[in-house]
Amino acid sequence: MNDASTAARQLAGGASLDEALGHASAECWPALDRAIRDLPPWELGVHVAPAGRRVQWPWNAPLPILRRTPRAASESASVIALCHHDGRIREAALDLTSGSPALLPLLIVRCADWAAPVRERARALLSERSGSALVHHAELILLLARREQGRFAVDLLDRLLRDGPAPQMEPLLTSPDRATRRFAHRIAVDRGLLAPGRLARLAADSGDASLQDLCADAAIASMRDEDHDDVLRVLLKARNGRVRAAGVTALRRTGRHDEARARLTDRSGVVRACARYVLRQDGTDPLPLYRAMCTGEVTEPGAAAGLGECGDRTDAETLWALVRHPEAAVRVHAVTGLRALDAVTRAGLAPLIDDPSSAVVRAATRALLPHAAGFSREWLSARDAPDRARAVRVAAQRLYRAAGYVRPTG
């Protein structure tokens, strides 16, 4: 579509909405409203609206007598009038929206108008519109909710969705607009329209943290005995740690505490914490389990981090041994465990800045930042050389800044 200022000028010249806007997104309508209001008076021209009202006249002059005009000119005049800087003209133009679906977005915009007479008249007219028409413009309604006077249309849409037929919710649940999806899912959850299995899949597949929490919590709260396997299997296999954590916590509710053992070594710290909580609720201390996993051949890297998270300073020796483990993931989690125990030393982790694994270098750098002042300029400069790996150079630069050194230029 054209940008808002171009569309405004085309409408001022008598173009139809289709010609000026094409397929307009929700953001286009407030932008068009501002663009028309900002047009200088000489660019507005003289337009005649469908009801016959001219939309440009001296400030205190009465409205002219009505007369008919061609459809396109009539539509463009209506749009200009609905967005006019004079509130009296906007109010008078609101009657033009009746029976015109193309003008409904601007009626919604006027419901959040700063002028009370315009706002009240627009709200009265919007209340008469069908629910399906408002659902189609849910994204615009939610966009305008950010305005001081933008709650009316949102509350109206909320009531329509809560009292209306369930099928009209479906397009909103899959809307590309994040605010619309969140709004629709909250209502659908409140109405109990989504089965526990579907809620679990929504939580696992969504990239939106708010929807993950909403759907995971709702799936767990609404699941019956026969839903346990379906819901928990999906949640526990989710990519996102928050969703897996919800699934692990739900193991306690379903009496399947022992299954939390497998989650003690999860890659996510919050999942590991939830697994420890579930086991403790069943009377199992996770610390001996971690110690056993870390003293033999370590196959689960997360065990090293878990040991640091629930162990004590006597476990630091075990973790220092794992810092030299041949598997990079184990070295990363061992550094994480040492940080959790507050057992980091500069001498112990400094060699990891030269580690061939960039993940290990990053983990070591984060752990060493509080100790950066102990590094010499020469040691850091040597690792900021052009022949060093990028991860090593970035680590040296971060430590250089943390130490308060000024890097030489050139």
Structure description:
- This protein has 410 residues and is mostly helical.
- The protein is built from 26 helices and no strands.
- Helix 25 (377-383) packs antiparallel against helix 26.
- Mean pLDDT is 88; it is low at 46-73.
What's this, in brief?
The protein is mostly helical. Helix content is about 60%, strand content about 0%. Mean pLDDT is about 90; it is low at about 45-75.
Write the layout of secondary structure elements.
Elements: H1 4-12, H2 17-21, H3 28-38, H4 41-44, H5 71-82, H6 87-93, H7 104-110, H8 116-126, H9 131-136, H10 138-144, H11 151-163, H12 170-173, H13 178-191, H14 196-205, H15 209-222, H16 228-236, H17 241-253, H18 269-281, H19 286-295, H20 302-310, H21 316-322, H22 328-341, H23 346-349, H24 358-368, H25 377-383, H26 390-402
Envelope shape? flat
Indicate the proportion of strand residues: under 5%
Total of helices: 26
Return the average pLDDT rounded to an integer.
88
Count the strands? Answer: 0
Key descriptive features of the protein:
26 helices, mainly alpha, flat, 410 residues
